[in-house]
Amino acid sequence: MHAVPPRPSLITHSADFLREALLRGEWQGVLPSERTLCTRLRISRPTLRAVLTQLEREGVIGAVVNKRRQILAAPTTRGKSASSRMIALLTPVPQQAMPPFVLFWVDALRELLTEAGYQLEVHVSPHCFTAKPAGGLKKLTQRVTAAAWVMFRSTPVMQRWFVEQQLPAVIAGSCADGMGLPSVDLDYRATCRHAATMLMQKGHRRIALLLPDSAHGGDVDSAQGFREAFATSDAVPCVVQHHETVEQVIESLNEALKRKQAPTAFLVARTIHTLTVVTHLLRLGHKLPRDFAIVSRDDDAFLDHVVPKVTRYSADAAKFAKRLARLVLELAQTGHTSTKPVRLMPDLRRGETV
Q: Do 206 and 289 reside in the same domain of the chain?
């Protein structure tokens, strides 16, 4: 039997990461404080000090002076990985603003990448998600040397830029038509088609899909799958869009309720908007599901505490992270991977709102 090569330690990973940051010129003169570095690297202070001691022996940094370490020289390739061991996650929102499902798969992805010898670094860059992101993306990718990029809530314009620059990227979500980037997402098209069919089987003939007005692939697929369910039915579909604030969700909902043929059932994208729809209808004095049926396209733990219990579709964050990690590692290690979209079908969790 062949011996299994030892897996690099956390100290080795962290030292490689600091060397790459120094090569990029991320810090000048002195290193940040130990607390800042511990937070950045997600390691304990004893582990960090072992890393700094190693870099001090290499002559890259000096001894502690006034609680800071001076940068003495650019690191050499000695002790450094031949290629980057860092995976960059690009997001428009900080982690504290991410939905729980996303936080779960980000944490699971970080663990899977660490086991494989890579480190996940989150970059919050709202300016890269504008209508003209090229400038921001160029500056970011020149500053950050990543083995691969993971893009969360990416726009078609961003995806096209990565394709044109031939940078390794995986979409945590849906890839725009013609982009040819690997992607992992929930099967929103099949989910919404299934939900609309279920509501029609319950006798509803006027059904609305409440959806953010966005270009995100999952939302586009949701509307497509929703409409497909009505192809052979006399039921009336209605897609109601909003701009994601509480006030705009309520305004869109009220407009739908004022229609001559108002919907009797709502399929709602995003759990926070589901909560707004449920509580607003209850505030208006309606009974669920007697007056209106509600189905949430998505699921989060807080919905377990909503009364009446919301019918929704639930996905496995660990499974999502595993499929995403598989693509990311293949791309980082080989430079290529399958571009066939990976779609995961959520499970229906029956509640009391249908």
A: yes
Q: What DSSP string runs through 11-27? A: HHHHHHHHHHHHHTT-S
Of 209, 168, 185, which Cα lies nearest the Cα of 176?
185
Per-residue pLDDT averaged across 136-141, rounded? Answer: 94
Q: Is residue 80 part of a domain?
A: no
Domain that holds residue 142: 86-186+318-347
What confidence score (pLDDT) does residue 240 get? 95
Which residues of the chain form beta strands (DSSP E)? 61-65, 68-71, 86-91, 119-124, 148-152, 169-172, 183-186, 206-212, 236-242, 265-268, 293-296, 311-314, 342-344, 347-349
Structure-token match 């609680």, residue found:
67
pTM flag (> 0.85): no
Residues in the chain: 354
Segment 40-56, tens digit of pLDDT: 888 888 888 888 888 88
